[in-house]
């Protein structure tokens, strides 16, 4: 009788165990509900955050890293570095004993060394490199950060010392090395793939030094990783990491509720209130490294007139947008860079909402004193920095009507919007930006520099010689104090000339199960899993 | 028969040509540049932009791009995805089993419930059961799938906790993908066979209901009207007069004859169910071709859009051809 009872119990237990209901105390699986499929597993050839989360943030390391939760640059695969006086040479001392991943498809025999650094960068910069043409051979991020023209040469001094020689001093260079495209790949793996004539595998069967080892990817469904046992910073607290790909935000929320995911990507702002009421869910928020702005095309009248631009800046009630568009989850922006970024000029006075002053300012322009009719392009998609461009456009339309500016709202689908505005076909345009590396250059130079007019990213098409020379100078010196002074001055010129109405910095939110510990919001918008744990 | 087949094949090649022109040109008429989309807010220098266009083969005139596309397709090369840099054929074949598995389940669900509902409504014509069933069918037919899917998730997954919210299999099961059909792959797996199979089945329930609702309504209405026609036939009266039971009259004499148009509808519906997968797959995170096509349109991934449409159109054309051939086989009168 007793035996029968025990047998029954045994059967039930084995069924439950096989159903996965008993999870071993020694095996922790963390499920992240991501928003989409990675386009590749090589961050060198990608430009999207979805791919970066699944590759550079999990599988790879770079020479430098951003301190967890900040944009402070810290050593990573490089343990230290020196910069020459002229700012043109960076010598990196590399960490010893760093192991590459061992997988079914590759067993490394060599530790990380200078050869891997050369292999990784040269693929992107030299057309003669064996891997340069693999997978289409375009390295958008590397090129759009001007790395190709910045780097003159990379020299291996010994197995653990590498020298980067630059064409010109370039202060943001160090922060650029912490970006995703600068991830370090294994040269030994590369050689093996050349021998077996499977070069493409480097982009879909990744080998890195990072905290997680790639195990498996089922398209549009799931990505599986296991913790790297020999990770140089110590093994991660979780044993397995799973990306469960869930495209719809409301479905991700339902999965978080039922406990099918521990952390979800991009919670919808509409769900935040209900999430906060759920005790099993924790919601955290922090101002993102971003800006939403209204660019005024200075190449087209009447926006070539500073008085008109100032009048528009004064007429827009930005505080009301924070309530209506961001549901309070944002802050009014006065500078083109976010307040968490170094060199943010606190002393700048914003154009506070004032209709009378706006009318007076418009009157100074003479030709346009009585107002005019113009087009305003509203953002067609919800972006992290502006959740509802159309609604914001309607509010702007109502505000500007008060000073006699009649607005016609226009929008296109996202690709067309980007294309037409790159060509400068717009008059007033809503757009925004999320930072790549925490350096002010990444906002001021990329979005407002004279060279960016030609490249198309400077949507105001504003080229001010005084402003431009300051940001160029700031780029050429590694002296932080001097850089801060240049950028603060540049922000002053920007505000006086008002090529943009700086609208808002949005607050980034993350939602996870309350038993998750160690998760921090990354100001650059990625998700890191090395520090997370499940209680 | 041979003449018929040759004729059909001729029409088929012309249709393919038409589809290839449409799929190639439509997406190019839609504004939006895949290169710029790839770069987002970033933009690029004119040199880099030109280089990327050239790398993607988008710098050539449209006619030569189309010529190259057709030439490659004839050699079995459907191009390479701009986003994933993988061959389109491989991408398609990886995802198609998921769509087919869901489609078959949804259609089975629609048939199992649709036919009995239709018969029932026909038998009780213009009575309460008929009005109820036809009323519900009309609602089902007009149901917005996206909303319906979310309602199903809220009721069955979140409130009752009976089914998983989305996906094909719980993350705890790590199953090798051999055939791509989850129900088969779980059974082929050396471990966790039955729990994984049950889990896969549970994942199928809600998307199959969401996807099968409209076909169910169509089948129920078609069965009803077809049954009504048959019921008034002489042979039905004869069967009744012979003293057969009501069940035998309806199921054997009535249904068998009424089913012919229903089967045609089901065959045609299989094509539309594959295209209808777009909404269901998006809401249930189902990794099939519907979701894949939506993502490729958003990214202006030209090769995927062209190749994907050709594949789907090809399948529908072939299904239609098979139905035509089956008619001939079944009904010799049509051979003339």
Give the largest chain-chain interface (CB within 8 Å).
Answer: A-B, 62 and 61 residues
CATH topology of the largest domain in chain A: Dipeptide-binding Protein, domain 3
**In percent terms, what proportion of residues of chain A is strand?**
15-25%
Q: What is the highest CATH level, the class of the largest domain in chain A?
A: Alpha Beta
Number of helices of chain A: 19
Secondary structure: helix percent of chain B: over 70%
Mean pLDDT of chain B: 84
- What spatial form of chain B do the alpha-carbon principal axes imply? globular
In quaternary terms, these chains amount to heterodimer
* pLDDT < 50 runs, ≥5 residues of chain B: none
Q: Could you give a short account of the major beta sheet of chain A? A: 12 strands, mixed
| Rg of chain A computed from alpha carbons, rounded to a whole number of angstroms | 26 Å
Beta content of chain B comes to under 5%
What distance separates the N and C termini of chain B?
Answer: 9 Å
Q: What is the CATH homology-level superfamily of the largest domain in chain A?
A: Dipeptide-binding Protein, Domain 3
> What is the CATH architecture descriptor of the largest domain in chain B?
Orthogonal Bundle
Helical residues, percent of chain A: 25-40%
Number of strand elements of chain B: 0
What is this entry, summarized?
Chain A is an alpha+beta fold and 535 residues long.
Structure description:
The complex is a heterodimer of chains A (535) and B (336). Chain A is of the alpha+beta class. Chain A has helices at 2-18, 49-54, 114-125, 140-144, 147-150, 173-176, 187-195, 201-204, 249-257, 272-277, 306-315, 318-324, 355-364, 389-401, 414-422, 441-448, 451-455, 465-476, 480-497, and strands at 29-34, 64-66, 73-75, 78-83, 89-94, 151-158, 161-166, 212-218, 222-227, 240-245, 263-264, 281-287, 290-296, 330-332, 372-377, 405-410, 428-434, 500-513, 516-517, 533-534. In chain A, strands 1, 8, 9, 10, 11, 12, 13, 14, 15, 16, 17 and 18 form a 12-stranded mixed β-sheet that branches. Chain A has a 4-stranded antiparallel β-sheet with strand order 4-5-7-6. Chain A has a two-stranded antiparallel ribbon with strand order 2-3. In chain A, α11 runs antiparallel to α13, α16 runs antiparallel to α18 (465-476) and α18 (465-476) runs antiparallel to α19 (480-497). Chain A is globular and about 75 Å long. With 336 residues, chain B is an all-alpha fold. Chain B has 2 domains: 32-77, no CATH class; 88-335, MetI-like fold (Orthogonal Bundle), CATH 1.10.3720. Chain B starts with a helix and ends in a 6-residue tail after the last helix. The interface between A and B is large, with 62 and 61 residues.
């Amino acid at each position: 009788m007793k035996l029968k009872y025990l047998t029954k119990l045994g059967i039930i237990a084995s069924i439950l165990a096989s159903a996965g209901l008993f999870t071993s105390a020694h095996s922790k699986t963390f499920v992240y509900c991501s928003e989409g499929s990675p386009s590749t597993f090589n961050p060198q050839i990608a430009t999207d955050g979805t791919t970066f989360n699944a590759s550079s943030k999990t599988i790879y390391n770079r020479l430098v890293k951003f301190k967890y939760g900040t944009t402070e640059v810290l050593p990573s695969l490089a343990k230290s570095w020196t910069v020459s006086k002229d700012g043109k040479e960076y010598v990196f001392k590399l960490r010893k004993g760093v192991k590459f991943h061992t997988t079914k498809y590759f067993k490394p025999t060599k530790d990380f060394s200078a050869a891997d650094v050369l292999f990784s960068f040269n693929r992107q910069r030299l057309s003669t490199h064996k891997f340069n043409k693999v997978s289409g051979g375009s390295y958008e991020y590397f090129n759009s950060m001007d790395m190709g023209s910045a780097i003159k040469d990379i020299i291996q001094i010994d197995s653990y010392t590498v020298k980067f020689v630059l064409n010109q001093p370039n202060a943001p260079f160090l922060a650029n090395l912490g970006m995703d495209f600068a991830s370090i790949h294994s040269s030994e793996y590369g050689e093996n793939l050349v021998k077996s004539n499977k070069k493409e595998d480097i982009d879909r069967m990744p080998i890195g030094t990072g905290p997680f080892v790639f195990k498996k990817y089922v398209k549009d469904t799931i990505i599986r990783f296991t913790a790297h046992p020999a990770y140089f910073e110590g093994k991660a607290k979780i044993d397995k990491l799973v990306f469960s790909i869930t495209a719809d935000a409301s479905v991700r929320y339902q999965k978080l509720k039922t406990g099918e995911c521990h952390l979800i990507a991009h919670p919808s702002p509409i769900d935040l209130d209900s999430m906060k009421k759920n005790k099993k869910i924790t919601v955290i928020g922090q101002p993102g490294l971003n800006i939403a702005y209204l660019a005024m095309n200075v190449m087209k009248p009447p926006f070539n007139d500073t008085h008109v631009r100032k009048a528009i800046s004064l007429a827009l009630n930005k505080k009301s947008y924070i309530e209506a568009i961001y549901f309070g989850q944002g802050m009014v922006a006065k500078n083109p860079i976010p307040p968490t970024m170094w060199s943010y000029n606190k002393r700048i006075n914003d154009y506070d909402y004032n209709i009378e002053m706006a009318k007076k300012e418009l009157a100074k322009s003479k030709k346009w004193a009585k107002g005019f009719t113009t087009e305003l392009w509203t953002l067609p998609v919800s972006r992290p920095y502006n959740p509802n461009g159309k609604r914001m456009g309607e509010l702007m339309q109502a505000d500007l009507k008060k000073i006699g500016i009649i607005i016609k709202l226009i929008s296109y689908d996202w690709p067309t919007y980007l294309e037409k505005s790159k060509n400068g076909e717009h008059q007033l345009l809503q757009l925004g930006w999320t930072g790549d590396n925490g350096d002010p250059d990444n906002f001021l130079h990329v979005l407002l520099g004279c060279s960016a007019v030609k490249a198309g990213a400077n949507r105001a098409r504003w080229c001010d010689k005084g402003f431009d020379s300051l940001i160029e100078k700031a780029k050429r010196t590694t002296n932080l104090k001097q850089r801060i002074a240049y950028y603060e001055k540049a922000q002053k010129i920007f505000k006086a000339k008002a090529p943009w109405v700086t609208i808002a910095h949005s607050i980034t939110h993350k939602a996870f199960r309350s038993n998750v510990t160690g998760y921090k919001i990354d100001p650059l918008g990625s998700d890191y899993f090395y520090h997370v744990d499940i209680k | 028969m041979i003449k018929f087949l040759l004729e059909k094949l001729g029409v088929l090649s012309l249709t393919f040509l038409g589809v290839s022109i449409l799929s190639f040109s439509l997406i190019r008429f839609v504004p939006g540049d895949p290169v710029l989309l790839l770069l987002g807010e970033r933009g690029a220098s004119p040199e880099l932009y030109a280089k990327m266009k050239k790398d993607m083969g988008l710098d050539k005139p449209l006619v030569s791009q189309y010529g190259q596309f057709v030439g490659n397709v004839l050699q079995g090369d459907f191009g390479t995805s701009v986003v994933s840099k993988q061959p389109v054929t491989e991408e398609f074949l990886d995802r198609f089993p998921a769509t087919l598995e869901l489609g078959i389940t949804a259609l089975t669900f629609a048939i199992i419930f649709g036919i009995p509902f239709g018969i029932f409504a026909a038998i009780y014509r213009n009575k309460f059961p008929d009005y109820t069933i036809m009323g519900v069918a009309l609602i089902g037919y007009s149901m917005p799938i996206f909303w319906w899917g979310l309602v199903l998730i809220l009721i069955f997954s979140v409130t009752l906790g009976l089914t998983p919210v989305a996906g094909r299999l719980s993350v705890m099961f790590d199953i090798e993908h051999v055939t791509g059909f989850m129900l088969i792959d779980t059974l082929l797996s050396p471990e966790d066979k039955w729990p994984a199979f049950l889990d896969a089945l549970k994942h199928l329930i809600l998307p199959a209901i969401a996807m099968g609702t409209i076909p169910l309504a169509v089948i129920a209405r078609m069965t009803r009207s077809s049954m009504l026609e048959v019921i008034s036939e002489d042979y039905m009266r004869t069967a009744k007069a012979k003293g057969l039971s009501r069940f035998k009259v309806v199921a054997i004499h009535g249904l068998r004859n009424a089913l012919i148009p229903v089967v045609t509808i089901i065959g045609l519906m299989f094509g539309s169910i594959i295209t209808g997968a777009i909404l269901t797959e998006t809401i249930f995170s189902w990794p099939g071709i519907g979701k894949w096509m939506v993502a490729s349109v958003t990214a202006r991934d030209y090769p995927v859009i062209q190749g994907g449409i050709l594949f789907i159109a090809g399948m529908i054309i072939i299904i239609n051809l098979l139905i035509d051939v089956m008619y001939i086989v079944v009904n010799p009168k049509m051979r003339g």
